[in-house]
């Protein structure tokens, strides 16, 4: 079975082709404005590189976030549109869970891992999972919060926590607290791999292909502020 997986919840969209359980091609787009809009073009290039065509895809797995409104909508629209055109099933998977699987690969079994992504507005998207033999188990559901608030929650857990993700740079050192190990810059586990989404689905973590924002979109926040200002 050939699975096409994609995630556009971060500044660096990730794509992968997975044959049964094994990734056969992976690609990350550069973190620049509009990168999410190049997903279909990148998917075509990925298929060409391994000598396959879109008609060879048997299923699609897409990251549902949490993440930015625009990025998530692009990824989900791409996945659902392609799934409809090819008449193949589309399954969602948590983007933070996929990132947690990568961290679990370098953390000891039983440890806590906390994937973090930049949510902007001086916040990060984060969650906490326990590493188990079969994968990861959710301890703290995905949430958008200030890095200092996450640090307080991690310290309160009173056990070692391994932290990684593109959002680490946005924490400005706030997670440098006792018991928390932030993985070294440049480590590949900071980067969400679309192939990990497939691993999560295979492990029973598949969910509906609907966006998980973890907070209100910017447009809704601005609308509510305008209503409040108008009395």
Tell me the layout of helices and strands.
Elements: E1 2-7, E2 14-19, E3 22-28, H1 39-49, E4 59-63, H2 69-86, E5 90-93, H3 95-104, E6 112-120, E7 123-132, E8 135-145, H4 147-156, E9 161-164, E10 180-182, H5 194-205, H6 218-229
Summarize the structure.
The chain is an alpha/beta fold. The protein has helices spanning 39-49, 69-86, 95-104, 147-156, 194-205, 218-229; strands at 2-7, 14-19, 22-28, 59-63, 90-93, 112-120, 123-132, 135-145, 161-164, 180-182.
Outline the structure in words:
With 231 residues, the protein is of the alpha/beta class. The protein folds into two domains: 2-95 and 192-218, ATPase, nucleotide binding domain (Nucleotidyltransferase, domain 5), CATH 3.30.420.40; 96-190, ATPase, nucleotide binding domain (Nucleotidyltransferase, domain 5), CATH 3.30.420. Helix content is 32%, strand content 28%. The chain contains six helices and ten strands. The protein has helices at 39-49, 69-86, 95-104, 147-156, 194-205, 218-229, and strands at 2-7, 14-19, 22-28, 59-63, 90-93, 112-120, 123-132, 135-145, 161-164, 180-182. The strands form two sheets. Strands 3-2-1-4-5 form a five-stranded mixed sheet. Strands 8-7-6-9-10 form a five-stranded mixed sheet. Helix 3 packs across helix 5 (194-205). The longest helix has 18 residues, at 69-86.
